Inverse folding.
């Protein structure tokens, strides 16, 4: 596996940006259903992400996690409550907040490099500033595959290309919706390590949704557990362990039990 720290070029460190402060204040949301009924999805959710903090969200499938991420991304306004970034209301998508989904959604007819450059092209950043593309590819360890096409990549490499496409925009907040969810378990473990290194170097804030309790505890400063739909905050767990963390550490095991307990899964804890 490529060691990002070793591969990092000095120029890549120049793209370090400050992390966003996100404030989710008393947010409730619902969707209209056929026949006029309303489906409540978020129930008075309040949550903060401090600048540079890594926050993971855990909750049962369908509870409203992706909906909350969409609201933070600015793709939809919340029905009630407010979401701000560094004190400013979030009202529309912005390149300072980038979402990476489970599916890397690369364009098959574009090379890796051209896929990563997409955000810069869309924002009409002049071509001579595209050195950032190479920096982002170096950060995720894909420099050698810049000229490859998506079908020539493994699942983990495709997801790294999707991360590079996000990083090229120098985000202040990375919004990750189960980004490693489709990878095999070994690739997933090594990608968790790589994601951690990226975050430690880049300084952006992260809001990660995962269904993997250990992944949340391995990566995050804070883990927020949600109830079944409509999502309510059940518990916030501060992960008071320095990096690198080990899944067998007594405190790690203890936090895992607590998280599973708050998810209502005591029988597997
Ligand atoms: N655009 C939408 N219109 C109607 N219902 C939606 C929409 N998006 C999500 N939902 C519903 O909201 C609930 C929460 O969905 P979601 O936020 O995707 O959950 P999670 O990510 O926690 O699995 C689900 O019942 C889902 O069917
Ligand atoms: Mg989801």
């Amino acid at each position: 596996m490529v060691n990002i720290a070793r591969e990092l070029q000095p120029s890549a460190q120049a793209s370090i940006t400050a992390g966003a402060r996100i404030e989710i204040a008393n947010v409730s949301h619902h969707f209209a259903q056929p026949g006029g009924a309303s489906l409540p999805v978020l129930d008075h959710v309040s949550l903060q992400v401090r600048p540079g903090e890594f926050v993971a969200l855990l909750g049962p499938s369908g509870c409203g996690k992706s909906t909350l991420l969409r609201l933070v991304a600015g793709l939809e306004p919340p029905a009630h409550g407010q979401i701000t970034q560094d004190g400013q209301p979030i009202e529309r998508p912005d390149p300072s907040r980038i979402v990476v989904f489970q599916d890397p959604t690369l364009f098959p007819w574009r090379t890796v490099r051209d896929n990563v450059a997409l955000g810069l092209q869309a924002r009409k950043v002049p071509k001579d500033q595209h050195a950032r593309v190479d920096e982002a590819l170096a950060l995720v360890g894909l420099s050698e595959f810049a000229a490859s096409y998506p079908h020539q990549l493994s699942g983990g490499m495709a997801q790294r290309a999707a991360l590079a496409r996000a990083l090229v925009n120098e985000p202040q907040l990375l919004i990750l919706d189960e980004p490693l969810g489709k990878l095999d378990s070994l690739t997933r473990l090594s990608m968790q390590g790589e994601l951690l290194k990226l975050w430690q170097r880049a300084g952006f804030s992260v809001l990660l949704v995962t269904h993997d309790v250990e992944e949340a505890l391995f990566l995050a400063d804070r883990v927020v557990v949600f109830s079944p739909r409509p999502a309510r905050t059940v518990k916030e767990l501060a992960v008071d362990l320095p990096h690198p963390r080990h899944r067998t550490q007594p405190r790690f095991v203890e936090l895992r039990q607590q998280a599973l307990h708050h998810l209502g899964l005591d029988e597997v804890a």
In short: The mean pLDDT is 91. Residues 187 and 254 are 25 Å apart (CA to CA).
